[in-house]
Design a protein that fits this description.
The complex is a heterodimer of chains A (174) and B (311).
Chain A (H helix, E strand, L loop, with lengths): L12 H23 L2 H18 L8 H19 L1 H7 L17 H11 L3 H12 L4 H8 L3 H18 L8
Helix pairs in contact in A: 1-2, 1-3, 2-3, 6-8, 7-8
Chain B lengths: L6 H8 L7 H14 L13 H12 L4 H4 L12 H4 L18 E2 L1 H4 L16 E4 L2 E10 L6 E7 L2 E2 L11 E3 L7 E5 L6 E6 L2 E8 L12 H4 L6 E6 L3 E3 L2 H14 L1 E4 L4 E2 L1 E7 L4 E7 L2 E4 L1 E4 L1 H12 L1
Helix pairs in contact in B: 8-9
The chains are: A mainly alpha (174), B alpha+beta (311).
């Protein structure tokens, strides 16, 4: 006789609400940083959380953010690839900043860093965003991207060098 | 402190006006509620000709059926990895996967990891038939070699993320809209097949993004191969080549398996069942659990397999 231990299939809106409160801004800004397109970033962010609600994945505590960003990253990659021809023909647009209403600091230096990161090749950009922006470790990133840790380390190293060139020799802490 | 180390502060400063607010939250809830309604109008996503052509190009690159179907290579492989070697213009849109898929370590299956290998962009070619998902096994099989049975329907929607679609649809990230999907004679819900330009593409029932069993399904409903298994290979343990013993082991598995989850199994081995038709089904294994559609615990099966090798 086969017995089954079924996991609950009931919607968990409290989990959705909690994770949205915690991570939606991170997901949205991560997507925008990657794509450089606000509408696309908002669409991807919505898709990620719709999926959280409808697919009800089994998320271990502590890994929810990684799951959200991995789903977001995969969607971003789809969109990035689908618009490659447009970028080839028209060139890649500069990443526009969207500062808050109370932001009065000089954003020039901020803009140069943001645009340099956005200008990295996509495979470098994603590891830089996950490592430096979102604070994941190499091991975590390797799991999220299903790549060896050595590859992640290598991409980070090459990203830093590429950024140095993009920033025209400004000090980059490695 | 270097600029990269300061990236979180820099980004918050630069993107502070970008907020996931309550309006977006409401939209998300609304979209999700639409997707879970029982009756949905079908949304036909019209992809460009380039995407459809890219699908066919990728299908053409899957033509390793003669090696996978009927012959006996050392490692069961499918060259889905070749899709990852295509340049951006030739790739089809990839599905949006999370960690709910079965995976297998490279060390367990070699550099070509078998049917559970992902394309290098992290996607799997799948078909979803009203909430049941099937992962591509092989393609380019001549029609006469696969006994097609009833038509299950046509692909309603091509989507880069089938898991986002309503479970009322027949959806795929690999097969174009309009392609007919068939069941395979004698295989029940284990397999489905699609007629492509280069022959038949076979798909095996799997878990996908949290979708596994439907209604009151049990393991045997997803592996309707009783009486058809002629060989079982459990990597790292051995191979059984007596059909009667294989069937006995299969029945042991069906009678003792308990459902662990509808999600993933981080596997370090695999179980390949070769059928009398030559089709090879693949399940991944770890710690006395097997997974294809759902993760199933069955220490009794693994013990019985060992015993069978010893007799």
């Amino acid at each position: 006789m086969v017995t089954q231990r079924m996991h609950s299939q009931e919607p968990d809106e409290s989990t959705f609400a909690r994770l949205y409160e915690l991570y939606a801004n991170d997901v949205l800004r991560f997507c925008y940083f990657y794509l450089g397109n606000r509408q696309q970033a908002e669409d991807v962010c919505q898709d990620v959380f719709v999926r959280l609600l409808t697919a009800q994945p089994e998320l271990q505590q502590g890994s929810e953010k990684a799951w959200l960003l991995k789903v977001a990253l995969n969607r971003c990659k789809d969109l990035w690839r689908s618009s490659w021809l447009k970028r080839v023909m028209l060139g890649s647009p500069t990443l526009e900043l969207i500062p808050g209403p109370d932001e009065i600091a000089d954003l020039e230096e901020t803009a140069s860093v943001m645009q340099a990161v956005h200008a990295l090749p996509s495979e470098f950009r994603e590891v830089v965003l996950l490592y430096y922006y979102q604070g994941f470790g190499i091991s975590e990133i390797a799991q999220m991207l299903n790549l060896p840790e050595g590859t992640i380390s290598s991409r980070l190293s090459r990203s830093r060098k590429r950024l140095e060139k993009l920033m025209k020799g400004e000090d980059m802490d490695g | 402190m270097g600029k990269l180390q300061d990236l979180p502060r820099i980004a918050d400063q630069a993107l502070g006006g970008l907020q996931a607010d309550s309006s977006m939250k409401a939209q998300i809830i609304w979209k999700a509620s639409r997707m879970t309604q029982p009756e949905l109008s079908r949304n036909f996503h019209f992809r460009t000709v380039a995407f459809v052509c890219a699908c066919l190009i990728v299908f053409a690159c899957f033509g390793f059926s003669s090696e996978f179907f009927g012959q006996d290579p050392t490692v069961p492989v499918i060259a889905s990895q070749s899709a990852g070697n295509l340049d951006d213009a030739q790739r089809i849109a990839s599905s949006n996967l999370d960690q709910s898929e079965v995976t297998i370590h490279a060390s367990a299956g070699g550099s070509n990891m078998g049917i559970w290998a992902k394309w290098s962009d992290g996607s799997y070619p799948v078909i979803g038939i009203r909430g049941k998902f099937y992962r591509q096994l092989s393609s380019g099989i001549s029609k006469g070699r696969v006994p097609l049975s009833s038509e299950l329907g046509e692909i309603d929607t091509f989507s880069s993320d089938p898991s986002l679609a309503s479970t009322d649809l027949i959806i795929s990230n690999a097969v174009p809209v309009g392609a007919k999907v068939y069941s395979v004679s004698g295989m029940g819900g284990t397999l489905c097949a699609v007629e492509a330009d280069d022959g038949i593409a076979l798909f095996q029932r799997v878990s996908y993004s949290g979708h596994a069993l439907r209604s009151n399904e049990q393991l045997k409903d997803t592996l309707q191969v009783s009486g058809h298994v002629v060989k079982m290979e459990l990597k790292g343990t051995g191979t059984i080549t007596e059909p009667a013993v294989c069937d006995s082991l299969l029945q042991t598995l069906f009678s003792t398996a308990t459902l662990d989850s509808n999600g993933s199994l981080h596997a370090d081995s695999y179980l390949v069942m070769t059928l009398d038709s030559g089709i090879r089904l693949q399940l991944v294994c770890n710690q006395e659990r097997v997974a294809a559609c759902g993760v199933w615990s069955s220490p009794e099966f693994f013990d019985a397999f060992q015993d069978a090798l010893g007799t």
